[in-house]
Design brief:
The protein is of the alpha/beta class. It folds into 2 domains: 10-105, Winged helix-like DNA-binding domain superfamily/Winged helix DNA-binding domain (Arc Repressor Mutant, subunit A), CATH 1.10.10.10; 134-326, Vaccinia Virus protein VP39 (Rossmann fold), CATH 3.40.50. Helices cover 44% and strands 21% of the residues. It has 13 helices and 9 strands. The protein has helices at 10-23, 27-35, 43-50, 54-66, 91-101, 107-131, 135-142, 149-157, 176-182, 193-205, 243-253, 272-277, 286-295; strands at 70-75, 78-83, 162-168, 183-190, 211-215, 228-234, 254-265, 298-307, 313-321. Strand 1 (70-75) and strand 2 (78-83) form a beta hairpin.
């Protein structure tokens, strides 16, 4: 039951407040809220992160859900829990989340989160290592670049030429020529040596002398803090272990006023994409991307939604990093 009631009566408001304080009256439940700040997790993942048995964890999630503090999303046959969007909550609930976020997570919890993210990332790397030769064929199953490439190019054309551009996960490199023409220097990062080799071959074939390709490690984006004018993340987030964290890292690479061009799938229910295409997430609700971007200090400037011929939808979003004086 949501706390965001339009015009609650006194009894309903008191009931909602009682559920909220009950939810916040247990240290483990506050730890759960902290763990869910940036990521969605399945029940078994949360059990491993927090060192709690499933029946106990399910009870705590039920209490948090009844207070409207967490929601759940189905990803194929799996259920993932996430924190409710702050905009949907009453001030008391937002204050509770703020207070929970002000307390650092336990070292054990942080280590558990790191393990789960690492395992997700390893699964993604293993998929691309095994499937790089047929990546384009698999990509065509869901989001053929030919169906949205023109729209991406138009969004790039609306931006000013830049000194330094970054593409995270260039795949086979089809966007690199467009970036090479609009930036003095282009960095392309990928955590898959096999995919990076394909992007390198494409750059050599088209003589893109201002493109530098790098194998990304865990701190690759951190090393670029405040140095990028334009970052591009094309169909990458749904392959990443922690989409919100990656979006925040991309924002951190930008200079004040820099832009992030983000394209990804809208939320869908085609679970076969996990096995066939290595997707960790079945797309994203537009509100999720907007919320993560806002937390990262980004404001949205443009958006476009395209329906593909196979029934999938692609969202194209352009965000800009706030100037320092505009930071919240």
């Amino acid at each position: 039951m949501s706390l965001a009631l339009a015009t609650p009566g006194p009894i309903e408001a008191l009931d909602a407040l009682a559920r909220l304080y009950k939810a916040g009256g247990d240290p483990l439940r506050l730890e759960i809220l902290g763990a869910l700040r940036q990521d969605s997790y399945g029940v078994l993942e949360l059990c491993r992160i927090l060192g709690v048995r499933q029946p106990a964890l399910s009870h705590h999630l039920k209490v948090l859900a009844e207070a409207g503090l967490v929601g759940r999303r189905r990803e194929g046959t799996s259920i993932f829990y996430h924190r409710s969007a702050a905009a949907t909550l009453e001030p008391a609930a937002r204050a509770l989340l703020d207070a929970a976020d002000a307390v650092a997570l336990r070292e054990e919890t942080l280590a558990g989160i790191a393990r789960v993210r690492f395992e997700r990332a390893e699964n993604s790397r293993a998929f691309f290592a095994a499937n790089a030769p047929k990546f384009l064929e698999q990509q065509e199953l869901i989001a053929p670049p030919s169906q949205y490439q023109a729209a991406v190019t138009e969004l790039l054309d609306a931006l000013q030429p830049v000194d330094t551009a970054l593409e995270l996960g260039p795949g086979q490199g089809w966007l690199l020529p467009a970036l090479s023409a609009r930036a003095a220097r282009v960095l392309a990062l990928d955590n898959s040596p096999e995919m990076l080799a394909q992007a390198r071959a494409a750059c050599e074939a088209q003589q893109l002398d201002n493109v530098e390709l790098r194998l990304a490690d865990g701190n690759a984006l951190g090393e670029l803090a405040g140095s990028i004018d334009l970052a591009v993340c094309n169909m990458v987030l749904h392959h990443t272990a922690s989409p919100a964290a990656v979006l925040a890292q991309l924002a951190h690479t930008l200079v004040p006023g820099g832009s992030l061009l983000l394209t990804d799938l809208c939320a869908h229910d085609q679970a076969w994409a996990r096995e066939a295409c290595g997707d960790l997430w079945l797309g994203f609700a537009p509100s999720d991307l907007a919320g993560w971007a806002a937390l990262a200090g980004l404001v949205e400037h443009h958006n476009l939604y395209l329906a593909l011929r196979n029934g999938f939808r692609v969202q194209l979003r352009v965000f800009q990093k706030l100037q320092e004086k505009e930071q919240p």
